[in-house]
Amino acid sequence: MEKVGKIFKEHTMQIILFLVVIFFAITTKGQILSAMNFEALITQNAYVFILATGMFMCMLIKGNIDLSVGATVCLIDAIGAYMMINMGISVPVAMISMVVIGCLIGAVLGWLIAYLNIPPWIATLGGFLAFRGLGTKIVATASSTSSISVNDIKGFTNLFISHVPKEYCLWIGIVCCALFVILQVRARATKIKKGYEAESKGSLITRCVIICLIIMLFAIKYAGGIIDVKSFSDATGFAGFFVGKKGIGAILLAKQTSLGLPAVLIWVAVVLLIYDFIASKTVLGRYFYAMGGNMEATRLSGIDTKLVLFFAYLNMQFLSVIAGWASLAKLSTANAFIGQNYELDAISACIVGGVSAYGGSGSVFGMVVGAALIGVINLGMSIMSIDPNWQKVIKGVVLLAAVVFEIVNNRPKTKA
Amino acid sequence: MAKVILEMKNITKTFPGVKALDNVNLQVEEGEIHALVGENGAGKSTLMNVLSGIYPFGTYEGDIIYNGEVCKFNKIKDSEEKGIVIIHQELALIPYMSIGENMFLGNERGKAAAIDWNETYGEADKYLKMVGLADSSRTLVKELGTGKQQLVEIAKALAKHAKLLILDEPTSSLNEKDSKALLDLLLKFKKENGLTSIIISHKLNEVSYVADKITVVRDGSTIETLDKATTEISEDRIIKGMVGREITDRFPKRHDVQIGDINLEVKDWCVYHPLYPEKKVVDNVSFNVRKGEVVGIYGLMGAGRTELAMSIFGKSYGTGITGTMTLNGKEINLKNVKEAIKNKIAYVTEDRKGNGLVLNNPIKINTTLANLDAVSERSIIDKDKEYQVAVEYKDKLKTKTPSVEQNVGNLSGGNQQKVLLAKWMFAEPDVLLLDEPTRGIDVGAKYEIYCIINDLVKAGKSVVMISSELPETIGMSDRIYVMNEGKFVGELKQEDASQESIMACIMRSGRGE
User: Fold this and answer.
1) Which of A257, B84, B280, B327 has the smallest set of CB atoms within 10 Å of its CB?
2) Which of B16, B360, B423 shows the shortest C-beta gap to A293?
3) Distance of alpha carbon B439 from alpha carbon B428, whole angstroms
4) Which of A61, A300, A311, A414 to mutate to test the interface with B (most CBs of B within 10 A)?
5) B487: closest CA among B282, B309, B292?
6) Which residues does A138 contact at the CB level (< 8 Å), separation at least 6?
């Protein structure tokens, strides 16, 4: 029993996500699991995943946040659209310029925070106000409608809104699964070879199976299903629940219209993989965790804590640029409202994903689960056409519940 | 025979998985000073937390009989109403409030919601006078040194009409002079007001100085109560009760250690305070340490010892640092901590929780933090190697833990200190600056730390050991520098060093000779 409890405790958020999906699958009669909604989950939330990755790095250091990222998206998109449309600058040059400007902004904020000791939320609150003002001014100057459309710059938008044709999706899924299994098995084999404690075979297999099932579910959905609806039986009752036309089998596997694998998923996946690697495997990542645990001890261990803090904010703005690209391509116009509340979405994803609001703990994977949970709740509620005001209330409650849960869960059992 | 004011009968307190107190009995008579001694984790603080209502009635078994009635305290306020006041080890004063505000915090003077400030400060001044503090009660607490803050804590307790005062390690952050003053104050209150006190302390010389009775706690049980009136109490006698065996030698002998050439030499070292740049914290200090040598720096708290060590360690403290430093005959200028580590200097902090360890991280991560390059390749950490290193040091230093995956925060003080030492030993330094390496850890663990120091010098390292415990400084050092008010006021060889000769150096400098 103790073991089950431990598993539950360590994977609570994943289990909750699973239960929430089931809940919406029931209330929306399987609609939430349609290919279209798999597409929506990724394309509507791509910016959350990317921004929350940067926010996660900031929050690792003593729970710092960056309030300016949504405004940065607005400013960077305004500049990028202005360059591409009004100045006719080529796509690569414009994109590189966006990165350079984003990094400059990040350097200024990082310098204020790390070297002048300005509390992060104040420094970035300044950015929150200033960047949106600047961005709005640029679009207002550029056009009488206060928006710049980049719809015709296909060279730019297609980088994010195009799709990998659905014929390839199954194969991509299979390759990903194979890679995952090979890496996992190899890591365990090295441990055993070097004589270290390795996880049990059962846990390895369970993890591989679950992850591969999830990957394949996405692959099948993007491939537009694999079994013709007609081949499901007309049975009702118990059998129908599994193999009927409206049963689980049909919901998961039946053929549906699909556009293919959204390109933005590749961007998101690359960002997540890189940062997961940095956070969990590199010396730099270790510095972030150590600083969150004890700033002074880290400094006295010979680590340049100011430089790391500076880097966190520089990096946050760099990722804001990538999120800015994705948002501009998706919405196809730069205007005063782009990126609104993005910073709050990113912070919520981190908190719900178990990143400590006090710094020092959390993981990219946890954050992904948090972002997905919020994404699924959003999606499910809009399919059920719940009043948007109630949607906000529910999201607020979920956020608070996650923080309370984290604190109760991590409270030391013994007080001596 | 005096009246028994407090009796704790068969107290048992369990935490999940641990029996912290097992059938503990304690009897305190009115008007006595009763000391509780025991190794770290023996259960002294738990017992006092039961008494003061921090662990409410019902979470433990057994009875508390105070003034003849069985008490059921549900919160601290309940016990305070009866006159039982606890002063915790960590000072609990708010720095940006005045002494008066602190003293009546939660116990405000005045009517209804309005605070009567005249009464507050008037009363506060009265209590301050009782504890012999001349400062005005309107002074902000942050202006006071730790010695005075501890006196304010006592005044605060008196303001709550304390009849039984519990002091948890009251002198752990005080120097010897302030400690003496504090203990004398307790003796004075005992004599004049008949105040009963329970004092928890690791400092056995203080305990034997002040206490009428000493109760020894070991592994959650009371072992014995020694009465000064009937038995002769010596430190060795107390230690015997605490560890269950007699420690014939508190300091392990060093055998065949060759003292070699000068390793680190510091000349004319001056350091100024980072916030008040006109204040000189370290004043023209020169010293050296040889290979294979343990050099003790003895000084009272606030003498500038930590500041000296940290300023040497890559200027991690202070501004306007001047002076020269030579390492192995070569002059060096360390601009930051990284360069200090690269030049094989390590500073092991006195404040292991505050700036030594990352408490919410496991042992293995703490062990490698100062030398991550050694367990990584091209900035990617080899976690298997890291684990191996941590296990190696755990075995070497005999750290008691189920595994190196354990969070450091869950370890006892002595084991935390070992992890801290392991971290710096793994950085492979030639010179180790150890700042109070045995602060707040029990007798058994101290002995093990001394053994580690001996092993280090045996391997040709140089150790500079900062300490405010005289016996330790004399017992461990080959040479002793005495520091007072930022200056070095004496240098003694081990054979010339005694408590008297060291204190004489400080007294002489205090008189300006």
Assistant:
1) A257
2) B360
3) 23
4) A300
5) B282
6) A75, A78, A79, A82
- Measured between CA atoms, how close is B155 to chain A, in angstroms? 27
Matching CATH topology for B4-243 and B261-344+430-513? yes
Contact (CB, 8 A) for A379 and A41: yes
Average pLDDT of B262-282?
Answer: 89
Classify domain B261-344+430-513 at the CATH topology level. Answer: Rossmann fold (3.40.50)
The answer to whether the Cβ–Cβ distance between A283 and B379 falls below 8 Å is yes
Token couple for B415: 């084991």
> In chain B, how long is the greatest CA-to-CA distance?
74
Tell me the two tokens of residue B32.
């006595």
Of the CA atoms within 13 Å of residue A103, those in its CB half-sphere come to 7
CATH superfamily of the B4-243 domain: P-loop containing nucleotide triphosphate hydrolases (3.40.50.300)
Say if residue A3's pLDDT is above 90. no
CB contact under 8 A, A294 and B357: yes
Q: Are B291 and B461 spatial neighbours (Cβ–Cβ below 8 Å)?
A: yes
Tell me: the pLDDT tens digits for B290-302?
A: 999 999 999 876 7
Interchain proximity A290–B370, CB inside 8 Å: no
Domain boundaries, given as residue ranges, for chain A = 12-161+263-408, 164-253
Burial status of residue B441 (CB atoms within 10 A of its CB: 0-12, 13-18, 19 or more) = buried
| Cα distance between residue B488 and residue B284, in whole Å | 8
Q: How far apart are CA A319 and CA A98, in angstroms?
A: 11
**To the nearest whole percent, how much of chain A has pLDDT over 90?**
69
A196 chain-B contacts, CB cut-off 8 A? 384, 387-388
Cα–Cα distance, A386 to A389 (Å, whole number) = 8
Please give the Cα distance from B395 to B397 (Å, whole number): 6
On whether any CB of chain B is under 8 Å from the CB of A188, the answer is no
Q: Is the pLDDT of residue A94 over 90?
A: yes
Chain B contact set for A293 (CB, 8 A): 358-361
Q: Which pLDDT band holds residue A144 (cuts at 50, 70, 90)?
A: confident
Amino acid at B260: G
Give the pLDDT of residue A415: 34
* pLDDT given at position A416: 32
**Residue-range domain boundaries for chain B:** 4-243, 261-344+430-513
B41 at A interface, C-beta within 8 A: yes
B259: DSSP letter: P
